[in-house]
Each structure stands twice: as structure tokens, then as C-alpha cells.
Specification:
This is MerR-like DNA binding protein. The chain is mainly alpha-helical and about 100 residues long. The chain contains four helices and two strands; from the N terminus they run H-H-E-E-H-H.
Amino acid sequence: MDNNQTYRDKKVMGIGIVTEITGLSNRKIRYYELRKLIFPERTPSGTRKYSFSDVERLMEIAEKIEDGVQTHEIRKDIVKKEKHKMIIGQINSHFNRNGYK
């Protein structure tokens, strides 16, 4: 496991558990993956593995879909949030390397 990875980000759950937690069908979850809204890891045998963060994202996606938001709009929002997280991480890394706390 990556040292920066928290328990929330570790991919440990199969799709069956995720469907139980979220109430979403396997088909919907796979569709969200196809639309590049969720990114499960694959085991060598091809089994999808999800994290607690993935479950949270799936719940957010389901709520937005229910509110009428299109998948391409959700994807744009996800990309924007990921870019923001990356920039914040780079800024924090820069200050930590240079002795600022």
C-alpha cells in the first residue's frame, strides 16, 4: 500500500459488497465505470475491487443522476476536483520540502 494512501482509498471490496452498501445494481456500477466516473482496480483474475472512497463517490453519482445531472457533467466535475486535489498536494509538498509548516 502507498504510504500516502489511507484506509478509505485502499481497494478491498468486491462489487457484491458495494451493491449491498450503495443499493446500486452491478449494471449501474459497471456503467459508471464505463463512463469513467469510477475507477476500480482489477485483480489478476479480473475481479473489480473498490474502496470506501469509491463507495462515497458512487453515492454522490447516484444522487446527481437522480437530480437529472448528465454523466458527462459529473465527469467534468470529477476531473476538476482531481486537478484541484493534485495542485493542493503539489503546493503542500513544495512547502514541506522547503521547511515551511
